[in-house]
Model the fold of this input.
Amino acid sequence: MPTKSAVLKTIIENLSFEPQKYSGKGMYGRNCVGFTCEKPLPTVFQLGVEYESLHTEYSENDEEWPFQGNLRICMDNMGQEFIVYFPNIAWED
Done:
């Protein structure tokens, strides 16, 4: 079964963004999966659509989906761009 990190990176890449390692506020040096974008709200909406699409694809192929429940999504303003990150999904190389 693919890891949460691997599936989330695939979803981000499917949206034409580049996954990156990020350590957000209050994470005390732990690294999670994130990506930068200019318009976070429509991007997060699209991420949800892609998440559900991939979940359906896994179900149709009888593959085990690595996620249970909701994704925790955070974002920080970095000036001209935002970082969207998932503090509960550890970065894996």
